[in-house]
Amino acid sequence: MLVEGFGKLMYWVSWGLLLFSLFAFVDSAIRREDAYRAADKQTKAFWLIILGLAAAVNFFMGILDFLPIIGLIATIVYVVDVRPALRQVSGGGRRWPRGRGSSSDGPYGPFNGR
Fold this sequence. Notes:
Elements: H1 2-30, H2 33-38, H3 44-60, H4 67-89, E1 105-106, E2 109-110
Antiparallel strand pairs: 1-2
Helix pairs in contact: 1-3, 1-4, 3-4
Keywords: Membrane, Transmembrane, Transmembrane helix
Region (Disordered): 89-114
Transmembrane segments: 12-30, 45-63
């Protein structure tokens, strides 16, 4: 019973990693090529290859192998480092307030210092 539970957990973790790497791959595919150069990151083709390989490795191999861990590290690097830099360069910051408000606005309105 414990082994079955561990197997189910690893199954869902594998699916989560696959979806995470696919998200990063699709996100890197929709970004403009010049944004990568402007952000001083590797090229778009480089990230498409790395993230595509990470998604393929996550699809074909189990989570307990060595290569999916390397793919996870590459995906985390893209999401944590490259993606925010690309969003900053291309002007894709927070979309929610749609240009309203200022930098001193908090989640419940303007911050007036009191």
